[in-house]
Amino acid sequence: MARINTQAEFERVAKEAAGRYWGRGLTVRVGMASCGLAAGANALYDVAAERVKGNGNGLSLSRVGCRGSCVVEPMVDVVSPDFHLTFGNVTKAGLESIIDAAQANDFSSFEDADAVWQERDAPRTDGTLYTTRRGTHAQIPDISAIPFYAPQRKIVTRNCGLIDPFDIEESLARDGYAALVKVLTENDPEGVIETVLASGLRGRGGAGFPTGRKWALTREAAGDEKYVFVNADEGDPGAFMDRSVLESDPHAVLEGLAIGAFAIGASEGIVYVRAEYPLAVQTLRNAIVQAREYGFLGENILGTSFSFDVSIRIGAGAFVCGEETALIASAEGRVGEPRPRPPYPAQSGYKGAPTVINNVKTWSAVAPIILNGAEWFAEVGTESSKGTAVFCVTGTIKNTGLVEVPMGMTLREIIYDVGGGPERAGSEIKAVQTGGPSGGCLPKDQFDLAVDYEKLTEAGSMMGSGGMIVVDDRTCMVSLAKFFLNFTMDESCGKCTPCREGTRRMHDLLEKITSGEGTEEDIAFLEELASYVKDTSLCGLGATAPNPVLSTLKYFRDEYDAHIRERRCPAGECEALISFRVVPDKCTVCGACAKVCPVNAVVEAGKAPPTIDQDACTRCRTCFEVCPSDAILIE
Amino acid sequence: MEAESPRTDSTTTGQSGSLVAGVSNKVGSVLVVGSGISGMQAALDLANGGYYVYLLDSEPAIGGLMSKLDKTFPTNDCAMCVMSPKLVDCGRHLNIELVTYADVKNIEGVPGNYNVEIVRKAKSVDEEKCTGCGDCVTGCPSRYVVRPPDEAAQYAPELTADDKDFVDRLLREEPDVEGNLLAVLQDVSEYCRFLPEHVLKYVSDATGIPLARMISIATFYDAFSLEPRGEHTISVCMGTACHVKGSGLLQSRLQDILQIGNGETTTDGKFTLQTVRCIGCCALAPAVRIDDETFGFVMVRGLEKILKRF
Ligand SMILES: Cc1cc2nc3c(=O)[nH]c(=O)nc-3n(C[C@H](O)[C@H](O)[C@H](O)COP(=O)(O)O)c2cc1C
Ligand code: FES
């Protein structure tokens, strides 16, 4: 492919790509992001490849990224100009029959499959509407009738799972790089910043600083060299939005980055990705090579005087490197320790030059804003938080996965409508944790809270980068708070004392409480320590580390009290405070528990229900999990 | 050097016998081992109380860890402001003798009456004349690796030809080793499966980047190990989603099966067990990754079956 040098050339290439993409004959798309691969997508790909090789009959095959409903992975889409059907929980045999049915265009037998739905593609910006021929598969519900998808509004993840991330042509077919071309043709960097400012886009990395303001500050800062960074060091445990976007639609991020670089006057960009995401790195490397080939990166992009290139830095497993000053230190090849701000990176960042650092999702939202205008984006969302929020809904909830919903949706809608409610029948969702180790836990009675930056912070949690972990009554909140402190204690870089020592002391206190030795004074001490750590830490890691403790103390004080006063763990999780017992009335003496017990603590008694030897029992829960008749009781 | 008990105050009144009785029969002077903030305070208290004190430290200077801290917890007091007066007092006190750059070799005797043998390392500095200006430190050509000659001999390059080729190529192809040190170390770590000291030493010699800097990076980032690793690395996710779904149980079961602790390697060198903070497959929690393969919805019961595949 030769470099694209003019707007006209670009339009021709994009049009051809769109023609090929939308007009492609019967195609099987296998979702092969990390979650798909873990669920066995590779085997499915092989099955489909075999079919294509054999009697393909015009069948073609492509690999795509993640559609978001990770819980029904592996997923397969069958697409032709006439229809677009999506299948979840696909097995190898299932795929064979899906292909058979697609070739015969007869899906009547798929009514009851685990997850099947059809999709009408959204209208494109040029006004053409691509739809499935309605009525062909009347028994299969439309995507707008699927509760998981219906309330979603995809902006950041607009192409995720719909294109082959290794093929730039598919991205071009879905408006990829159109915004960059528009910006370069209009040649008005200030105008770009104004549009971004007017759209109300705020940083999706956690703090929610207005992106347009950050760009304007950097543009105004003195210096010939300026840099743009993608923060893809998604350290927040329990969140994978950035990974998903990079693995499924890397060009969206590169395009946004190039637009940002043009707006602030930078000629070099760096993507800082964490090492735990090998596939994201691979996808991104390939995307950069292809973008260079097409002339979207490199010297004199689109024949203008704007030159810009991107390189990748790989993190090495330190959470604090997600903090912007630590990230810069790490990218410079130093130990990733944060430094006090100001000066902010906008004034003095990478190599001392003005630097813009934005999250993956922030960059990915830029191109649609440029293309569709600030008002289009600002229409979605609340007064102070515009656009959409991307969440990874995980934990003990039915539909775990990646969702993108308009800001202002309530937690209840996200958890019960999109998320489908509790995972286990009969259990109850107790709390939701947002914002990762810096955020907090919100209880049931706060579920009517509308999701936006300010409201979540007011309630004692925070937006964070998008982790949303749902917990049910089997999770002990004290132990969860301990878990987070264990995390921050581990990840504290050790540069400042309040964070290094304070988190350790707080963790010790929680350890004491969960092992049943806590006293009332411990809680007061915990609160006191929390306030010291919060006020005196050097960076955001320490300053927010007490949040999980403070929020659980605020909303789940009764659980702390139960541990301290009654020496009891209400959720049955803290090992030191629980024991297992067989309920004779429920036990069917099937022997399953005795077979799995790793320490032989289940004492069988012939035809009578077994008993559990409390001294030998290590409280590993295996018997509890295998018991088919719920006859094991945790006390 | 022999540190006998020279000075006065031999209040030898009692008899020998029980250890407790011995304590009240104190003879000679006091040796304080370790000159951190607590050691210094102890030495000062004793010295003011009339004892002659030897204040010993293995470092060339007294002060210990606190001198390296900026602030102290929880009052946020400046560390040096707290300790500087004590440093000066220790240096000037007539009852305190500083024995720095020295180690305890042997202790004999009972509480109250010890004989301690001390090895003093060569400083090659005339302490009477030295003003502590620090010029020799900044001017020393090999200041980052201070090693006695016989020990240094052990660190002669023991690179195999292959290793050497690899490192040479790596350094040749990387225009800015210093700026991309992290990436270079990642490549070395991937090639050797850990960061062997002799390879780091070689990189240090070839590039002039201090070994200390490489070690500080290697110990800061979780991805690096200074110990050899097993053939396969098992990473148990300890992210929030996995924690809620019980990954702690997976970890303890794996430790039982493999008979190793977290971060350790089996004796046959096959598996290294480690925990990671989220591998981004939270929707499939609890997740375990072995090398590049990710397993989702892992159950305690299923672990042995998974391990058999490797
Ligand atoms: C301890 C800590 C960890 C952070 N981790 C991340 C992260 O993993 N990803 C991220 O985008 N921002 C992270 N941030 C926020 C960044 O410092 C920075 O605010 C953000 O990258 C700015 O991008 P945005 O304006 O697009 O949000 C972290 C901050 C702190 C204090
Ligand atoms: S929390 Fe385990 S994969 Fe994210």
In words, what does this structure look like?
The complex is a heterodimer of chains A (635) and B (310). By secondary structure, chain A is α/β, with parallel strands linked by helices. Chain A has 5 domains: 20-143, Glutaredoxin, CATH 3.40.30; 170-377, 3-Layer(aba) Sandwich (Rossmann fold); 388-472, Ubiquitin-like (UB roll) (Roll); 477-565, NADH-ubiquinone oxidoreductase 51kDa subunit, iron-sulphur binding domain (de novo design (two linked rop proteins), Up-down Bundle), CATH 1.20.1440.230; 579-634, Alpha-Beta Plaits, CATH 3.30.70.20. Chain A contains 24 helices and 18 strands. Chain B is of the alpha/beta class and 310 residues long. Chain B has helices spanning 19-24, 37-48, 79-92, 135-139, 149-153, 161-173, 181-192, 197-207, 211-220, 240-244, 247-258, 303-308, and strands at 2-3, 30-33, 53-56, 71-72, 77-78, 96-99, 102-110, 113-120, 232-237, 271-276, 288-290, 293-295. Chain B starts with a strand and ends with a helix. Residues 237, 239-242, 278-282, 285, 287 of chain B line the site of FE2/S2 (inorganic) cluster.
Layout of strands and helices, then pairs:
The complex is a heterodimer of chains A (635) and B (310).
Chain A: H1 7-23, E1 27-31, H2 34-38, H3 41-53, E2 60-64, E3 76-79, E4 84-88, H4 92-104, E5 115-118, H5 168-173, H6 178-186, H7 189-199, H8 211-220, E6 227-232, H9 241-248, H10 250-264, E7 268-273, H11 278-294, E8 309-314, H12 324-331, E9 355-359, H13 360-372, H14 374-378, E10 388-395, E11 401-406, H15 411-418, E12 429-434, E13 440-443, H16 453-458, E14 467-472, H17 477-491, H18 497-514, H19 520-536, H20 540-544, H21 547-555, H22 557-565, E15 580-582, H23 592-596, E16 602-605, E17 608-612, H24 622-626, E18 632-634
Parallel strand pairs in A: 1-2, 6-7, 6-9, 7-8, 10-14
Antiparallel strand pairs in A: 1-3, 3-4, 4-5, 10-11, 12-13, 12-14, 15-18, 16-17
Helix pairs in contact in A: 1-6, 3-4, 6-10, 6-13, 7-8, 7-10, 9-10, 9-11, 10-13, 17-18, 18-19
Chain B: E1 2-3, H1 19-24, E2 30-33, H2 37-48, E3 53-56, E4 71-72, E5 77-78, H3 79-92, E6 96-99, E7 102-110, E8 113-120, H4 135-139, H5 149-153, H6 161-173, H7 181-192, H8 197-207, H9 211-220, E9 232-237, H10 240-244, H11 247-258, E10 271-276, E11 288-290, E12 293-295, H12 303-308
Parallel strand pairs in B: 2-3, 3-6, 9-10
Antiparallel strand pairs in B: 1-8, 4-5, 7-8, 9-11, 11-12
